[in-house]
Amino acid sequence: MRPITAPRRAGAARAGLALCLTAALTACGAGGDTRPPPAPGGLTARAGSATSVHVMWEAAPPADGVTGYQVFQSGRLVRELPAEKTMVDVTGLAPQTAYAFTVRARDAAGNRSSPSAAAQVTTPAARAEDHLPPTAPPTTAGRAEGPRAVRLEWSPATDDTGVTAYDVYQGGIRIHTAGAAEASTTLTGLQPGTAYSFTVRARDGSDNSSPDGPAVAVTTPDDPAQGPGTAPGGFTATASPAAVDLGWSAPDTGRETAEYQLYVNDRPVTVIQFGAGAVPKGRASYRLTTTEAAGTVWTLKLRARLPDGNWGAFSEERRITLPG
């Protein structure tokens, strides 16, 4: 297959500027939103090394209108994050030192929540010149605990200076950190009817990470009562000379969907991304250009990037023949 060239989307910068101006007028105008969102819940802090701490909290529900989070260390702002990020590594800390972290939510009008309950943590002692990583956790097991949660268990790793944390990865992205004494965790905020693959790595006090332990695949059950499907709806593909026009409706994931992965003949060929301020409201469209010969047959399908970082279910598959 010859390369597919996707054109740049026109007007994204103008749309982003208009969105920023609208947000500014809304926030500053008389009678604007002055009600702050609720404080984040479920805050935890785990020492990842002698000089770093991994801070996590629960994502706010879409109805709260949260657009970002602020992370505080003993009342001092240390990180600002967008709404889709609910964890962060705070680095540059001192060994064998107690720290307290809180998080505040922020909405589009600039209203800030009250601080979350504080999470206390003490960093371990530093280990000089330790370059040897821990062994990988020998076994990993997992099971679904409802449509939006998975329970993971792993066996302990070993390290010459001692394991300080276990990091859980999904799709190559770290999504959770557990303490050295823990051998299981429950992951929440997942999507119903979705296949996941998880691995666990051990980490020591010098931030050396082990290889991945064995991958475990878990599929969450469907639950129409708790959430809609994750597949784009009404997917269409219309061929014209040197181009294919795509159309679809975004899945209802609770947040704007700005990234889609396109498959042609069962192979991923491109990722369609909509920039800030250019995410379609309602039905989305996209045009691909191609130099494939007339008579070439394609089957196309699409899936969306979900708020938790996983790819959702595929749309219906469409079959087209490229015209001359």
Unreliable sequence segments: 1-31
Q: Please describe the biggest sheet, giving its number of strands, its sense, and whether it closes into a barrel.
A: 4 strands, antiparallel
**SSE string:** HEEEEEEEEEEEEEEEEEEEEE
Structural class: mainly beta
**How much of the residues is beta strand, in percent?**
35-45%
Radius of gyration: 23 Å
Quote the average pLDDT: 84
User: Which strand order spans the largest sheet, edge to edge or round the barrel?
Assistant: 4-3-6-7
Our measurement of the CA-to-CA distance between the termini, rounded to an integer number of angstroms, reads: 17 Å
Describe what you observe in this structure.
The protein is mainly β. Helix content is 5%, strand content 41%. It has one helix at 12-28, and strands at 44-49, 52-56, 66-73, 76-82, 87-90, 98-107, 119-122, 140-144, 150-154, 163-170, 173-179, 184-187, 195-204, 216-219, 233-240, 243-249, 259-264, 267-273, 283-289, 297-304, 318-321. A 4-stranded antiparallel sheet has the order 4-3-6-7, with no helix packed on it. It is globular and about 70 Å long. It starts with 11 loop residues before the first helix and ends with a strand. The model is unreliable at 1-31 (pLDDT under 50).
